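Run: sequence + flavin-adenine dinucleotide -> complex structure.
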Amino acid sequence: MLLSNWNNYPRIEAKLEDLRTEGQALQMLEMNRYCIPRGLGRSYGDCSMNRFVISTPKFCRFISMDSNRGILECEAGASLEHILRVIIPRGWFLPVTPGTSHVTLGGAIASDVHGKNHHLHGAFGSHVLDLRLLTPRGDILNCSRDKDHDIFEAVCGGMGLLGLILSARIRLVPLESVFIRQKTLPAKDLDELMGFFQEYQAGTYSVAWMDCLQKGKKLGRGLFMLGEHCRAGEAPHAELLPPATGGARLPFTPPCRALTNPGIKAFNSLYYTLNSRRKGRSVTDLKSFFYPLDGLRDWNQLYGPQGFLQYQFVLPRCSSGAGLQKILQHIHSFGLHPYLAVLKLLGPGQGPLSFPMPGYTLALDFPIRAGLFSLLNTLDRVVLNLGGRIYLAKDARMQKDMLWQGYPRIKEFLNLKKRLDPENKLSSLQSRRLGICQNPY
Ligand SMILES: Cc1cc2nc3c(=O)[nH]c(=O)nc-3n(C[C@H](O)[C@H](O)[C@H](O)COP(=O)(O)OP(=O)(O)OC[C@H]3O[C@@H](n4cnc5c(N)ncnc54)[C@H](O)[C@@H]3O)c2cc1C
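>> structure
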């Protein structure tokens, strides 16, 4: 089949085989010379792509749930959406969640995903108690912070290259209601936007939408959003109902890119103005706050058949202000604007290939068109010179030096790779492009 991840770039011919049982997992690893695990393909790029792919979403049994202590164990293919349906009615929530619930437990661990609370609560891996890993040699390792600590840390963010995560136990957080108290603050420029992150850094969830089409005095203007879980007494109703599943589908497949620069500029201005007027406090539900894009199931098709790239980088806190300005200026000078820009504050990272570091991360969605790769190469230099790095789960094009300089613990990872997978059996298009694996495609 023709395979691509969420951003529809790149696309390759691949053979996908559904994993249903642990026994099959071993057989698949034995039978296929080079392969990579894949969850729901919500990464933007080629990290879960290879000619042979172990598809995990059907490997999704719930193994145990301790409703008193909030500890859940499931197979790696279980989706966060499914997990939420089980845990919310029991009064628990995910300690960390990305901006979509359509990712698997294995994918969330392998990318060590972060949420809007990273500055306080760390990434997904910080809440994994232990996991079972099938190595390419056929061993099943039970790893945790106490046992095989180095492997455990490296698997969180290890992009599926050290072994197939079979199952994991995660610690949940208590939930009193399915509502979020949200505060929205308009920021007239980048300084004000970053000032809000600083001022509200004790707040649980924070995120900002940025209007990247503005220049001059309005450069980096945006909307800062802060969220806290409502206590039981504050919520509009007391029932613990999980977010509604599914979402509307596009009524047609756009023949070419449906989004255009003038359209986005008009939308951004309207969005900013309306939300600036409505600024202040509101109460919203979990889906609207955490998963706003899950309401339109195939929004990625709006970018048309050529797909899009998400460029997500992090800059150390000390260089973030000047760095973000530089990045926005380069974007303007190339005349290629992102259609969506989301800014978050991160805290320290954990594993050798985990993305987070204390600083600001900006995620930019660009339609693929002439000049884009050249712009992103220019942005790479800014990011690298300022001590930042690119998120591997959002990467489809960076070159080897971005990995080797941006992730200073790469050698640690490669030593583990040599130990657990000396033949580089687990490899992706990305791992070959970045020089982690040298084997042929
Ligand atoms: C709308 C949207 C919003 C997002 N928001 C965020 C966000 O806020 N924060 C964030 O961090 N990310 C975010 N992401 C990215 C997404 O959370 C990650 O890319 C996640 O890893 C995708 O999980 P998946 O199950 O789809 O895995 P895939 O995309 O299929 O694979 C991702 C990686 O996990 C590996 N993998 C998958 N399953 C296993 C397994 N069982 N064992 C070993 N390795 C495995 C794959 O080999 C690959 O390297 C977002 C994505 C979308 C589409």
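>> summary
The two ends are 16 Å apart (CA to CA). Residues 5-6, 36-43, 47-48, 56, 76, 98-100, 103-104, 106-108, 110-111, 113-115, 159-160, 164-165, 293, 393 surround flavin-adenine dinucleotide (CB under 6 Å).
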